[in-house]
Amino acid sequence: MNARLDATRVASILARVAQARPRVHCLTNTVAQNVTANMLLAFGAIPSMAVHPDEVADVAAAAGAILINLGTISPEGERAIPRLLELARAQGKPLVLDPVFVELSPLRMRLAEDILRLPGIVVRGNGGEMQALAPLLAATPGATRITTGAVDRIEAPSGLFEIAHGHPLMTKVTGLGCASSALVAACCAVEPDPGLAAGAALTAFGIAGEIAAERSAGPGSFAMHLIDALASLDEATLLTRMG
Amino acid sequence: MNARLDATRVASILARVAQARPRVHCLTNTVAQNVTANMLLAFGAIPSMAVHPDEVADVAAAAGAILINLGTISPEGERAIPRLLELARAQGKPLVLDPVFVELSPLRMRLAEDILRLPGIVVRGNGGEMQALAPLLAATPGATRITTGAVDRIEAPSGLFEIAHGHPLMTKVTGLGCASSALVAACCAVEPDPGLAAGAALTAFGIAGEIAAERSAGPGSFAMHLIDALASLDEATLLTRMG
Amino acid sequence: MNARLDATRVASILARVAQARPRVHCLTNTVAQNVTANMLLAFGAIPSMAVHPDEVADVAAAAGAILINLGTISPEGERAIPRLLELARAQGKPLVLDPVFVELSPLRMRLAEDILRLPGIVVRGNGGEMQALAPLLAATPGATRITTGAVDRIEAPSGLFEIAHGHPLMTKVTGLGCASSALVAACCAVEPDPGLAAGAALTAFGIAGEIAAERSAGPGSFAMHLIDALASLDEATLLTRMG
């Protein structure tokens, strides 16, 4: 099923990120900002995180992709969202939505409804979040839906991809799912097929997680090893790990 | 004095947290959010950190306990506080106040005054913060007062507890005191006696700190080891360390 | 050129920080808050990070120095800036500006223009940021301009200092430049010559970075080792590393 997503293809997309160094503008929650920025840097991309409605479009204008993560959304972040949507629409810029805890908040559900109207939207959430969004997503043709878990499932216009990498410790560290959404955005900045882009990002993230788990003494040391592993991931490692 | 807080009792409260996996809704400062969330996850609890006044009550509604930490309070966070107080009052949900730097800010003192009106409130601060609040606390019957330091002192309706665990490095890492307040909240979600709940949380936190200090090369590596130690703390370790 | 900035001079300024334990009030971006606070603590200083316009001047009033960092500036942070400028002006308190991504945001450029009117202002940015500010800085007599990079260049009223310490990994971890600005502020709290203060801070920071690079397996573990190295930096190490 993943014939089109072998180690060579993943390595090629990662190499394009490392060469192009795309900036990913992240309107993201304050809990995950730091680990998200460090993960993007380790991946070869550049983070920017402006949130002020009066500057967010200026700062995001030259970014290669945009991430909107609804965790700890603030009133100012809420006002920044339409600016980013307008920019993404006008420039055809890739945009990834991470609907953190959307199942708990009617406010986030309303914001997600607006965001999902963007053509070509990519959404990454966990099982509960994606289930809560299912009725909206059913009415969103052309969206790429990514449900992460023990096996990540990517439903893209170009087909279905499943990624079976990663480690349970990844659910014990805050912000890692959020950071993986930023990696998906970074790959979307260099690869026009969002299914392949998401597949490459989540394969790299999952394999870095496997390596980190072998080196960690628990959830405290895990994120550090994950970032180190991501920064040194090469095609040989991908080949070995992807079998 | 701590006859009722031996290793078996502490282990029993920790086991209830690990089994019930209570969600702790944290309205907390942006400096400490990440380490607080990771500490709660290592403890077996689930963090949520919404702050927007239009959603904070929705997100906190099904949480097992609430933490209000006044560090980096924002105008929106200020407006979120009454929503959380109303929720805690209506549901009888445990609420912990962490009055960061209250001695420096008349705004925080006013907010603390409102929060302390909540029946059954639990307050954890350092010596300076608790001293600044002393006049207010004197007029707050039924409150549980926790002053942390070289020896943590817990004055609860059920009695006095003193915890002599921990390490000086814990004062050299930002957000650890804030995170300990979140652990107190997690224990309050499963243990109705706030004195015992706070005692169990601070014993676990202090012992994890002792273990981390033995493994750390300085304050940079300390938090990581603390989280690793907290995630693997078991009754045998508690027994050994509590003598 | 740096005859006045030998290891003994640097050690003397660091010792004054460790003894006076100045509080540095940081109005800084939410991405860098945690690493900035931990770096200040490792340096022997105390961080405070209030941002609410109704309390920021109260909290900063007794601080030894102020940092204003424009990253992730919020509407409330924008309103806090004039309160901090008024305080710095009234008390003659040192103030450091970190103009993150000022080249991307007309809003930040306007804010920087206001801040640069403060007599004795110290500015630290990377090459792109300092170049964008060059026209404003040309009209700012008495300012200290710090351009960090492979070689840090400090142009102070008392002369020119160049610091050739550090490691490329320092650009791969988010918030380290921001944290270095906070260290400059901490030194300005104890040393009246901002050129010497900045030189001492950036020498310590750069040498800690060199030590960290020798101990790190990548950007994930780098910040931890940098903070450990900063916390244990002594005159003997400075002497060896400064040749």
UniProtKB/TrEMBL annotation, chains A, B, C:
Keywords: ATP-binding, Kinase, Magnesium, Metal-binding, Nucleotide-binding, Thiamine biosynthesis, Transferase. GO terms for molecular function: ATP binding; hydroxyethylthiazole kinase activity; magnesium ion binding. The gene is thiM. It holds the Pfam family HK. The keyword Cytoplasm does not apply. This is Hydroxyethylthiazole kinase. Its EC number is 2.7.1.50. It comes from the Bacteria.
